[in-house]
Write a structure and sequence with these properties.
The chain has 349 residues and is mainly beta. Helix content is 13%, strand content 40%. It is built from 3 helices and 21 strands. The strands form 3 sheets. Strands 2, 3, 5, 10, 11, 12, 13 and 15 form an 8-stranded antiparallel beta sheet that branches. It has a 7-stranded antiparallel beta sheet with strand order 1-4-14-6-7-8-9, with no helix packed on it. A hairpin with a 4-residue loop joins strand 19 and strand 20. Helix 1 packs parallel to helix 3 and helix 2 packs antiparallel against helix 3. It is elongated. The two termini are 33 Å apart. 36% of the residues are buried.
Length: 349
């Protein structure tokens, strides 16, 4: 029974922890952003962050911002482009906004079409909309680094565009697949699939009116989430998780229920998650992981005195290695949407 349960958990972990692959995506470095001469500014904050601002004076009603032509992705192969943006409600004023656009060109370097996404601070939240996808909207209330993802592809002679907002591996909202040939603009070419050698023309912050600028990341930053072995063993479970990501209430409930079941099969009772090794302060796993975080799992061994028919609990022993192995598989399985590179075991602190 224990072996079957462990194999089942491992299968779940393998399936859920298929991670957000960035191997084939364009990496937008600070030097890739073209600015100046009417296109705002791109200022390198550090090795991973570029602050993007629009022009101080609008041109044709738009505060043009920097653009990048780093991508060489071709429509015939399928295009996936992403940019990683910090959304912090406390850093934006009501009404401030920015627009980001992924544009296409043909083999003659002629403009084909583009998909623009608007982000605006409204009261205490960010609202995302896209004029070419009238049914799409997304609301962001929590500080975090969000992935703006465009996919463009050809299917049965038609060209489609799909925009998705992600945090880590978690999908916040998506337009679904929109027939791009029905998205008309003043200079768009239709049907797109009839154009030769269509590829990415630019990723452009085409309209930025944010006083403090927009922080754009080259790579999604990560922090370490450590679950300390409750059996007192030599190994902790260390996960790389997306910075500012967190578990949902439902995921925490699932995690607790699964650990409770696993603990019972091994003769333990699960007590909870704690922020300290003395188990004095409970830890809320729905809190965003802003920095490296250590979580202590408390479980008690259940023992029965047959002479008196009394049940007592005690701390687990190092020899109870099967318990933490099972807990580790459960944590990895449930962590799929915040989990990044894969699990590894590290010596306890």
């Amino acid at each position: 029974m224990k072996k079957k349960f462990g194999i089942t958990l491992l299968s779940i972990a393998t399936f859920i922890c298929a991670t957000h692959s960035v191997n084939a995506l364009t990496t937008y470095e600070a030097d890739d952003w073209e600015d100046g001469s009417g296109y705002g500014t791109a200022t390198e904050v550090d090795d991973n962050i570029t602050n993007i601002k629009g022009e101080t004076v609008a041109d044709g009603g738009m505060f043009y911002g920097p653009y990048s032509k780093a991508s060489t992705a071709k429509l015939a192969d399928g295009i996936t482009e992403e940019t990683y943006i910090m959304l912090d409600p406390e850093k934006y004023n009501h009404g401030e906004f920015f627009q980001v656009s992924l544009g296409l060109k043909n083999g003659a370097d002629e403009y084909v079409n583009e998909a623009v996404v608007m982000t605006q601070k409204v009261d205490d939240a960010f609202k995302l909309t896209a004029g070419w996808a009238s049914d799409f909207s997304a609301t962001v209330t929590r500080k975090g680094i969000y992935t703006y993802q465009w996919k463009m592809f050809i299917d049965n002679g038609k060209t489609y565009v799909n925009f998705t907002l992600l945090q880590g591996n978690r999908e916040i909202a998506t337009t679904g697949n929109i027939d791009f040939d029905t998205v008309d603009g003043p200079d768009s070419k239709d049907p797109i699939a009839d154009e030769a050698d269509v590829s990415v023309k630019y990723l452009w912050f085409c309209n930025v009116q944010v006083a403090n600028g927009v922080d754009v990341y080259t790579e999604l930053p990560t922090v370490k989430l450590t679950f300390v072995d409750p059996t007192g063993g030599d190994d902790d479970l260390v996960l790389d998780v997306y910075q500012y990501a967190s578990f949902t209430t439902e995921e925490v409930d699932d995690l607790k229920a699964a650990i409770e079941e696993a603990a019972q099969t091994e003769g333990y009772t699960f007590v909870g998650f704690y922020a300290d090794e003395d188990y004095t302060t409970e830890y809320d796993l729905t809190t965003p992981f802003e920095q490296d975080t250590t979580v202590y799992i408390k479980v008690d061994k259940v023992t029965t005195d047959t002479s008196t028919d009394t049940v007592s609990t005690a701390n687990p022993k190092t020899s109870d290695i099967n318990l933490f192995a099972m807990i580790s598989m459960i944590v990895v399985a449930v962590s799929g949407l915040v989990f990044v590179l894969g699990k590894r075991f590290a010596k306890s602190h």
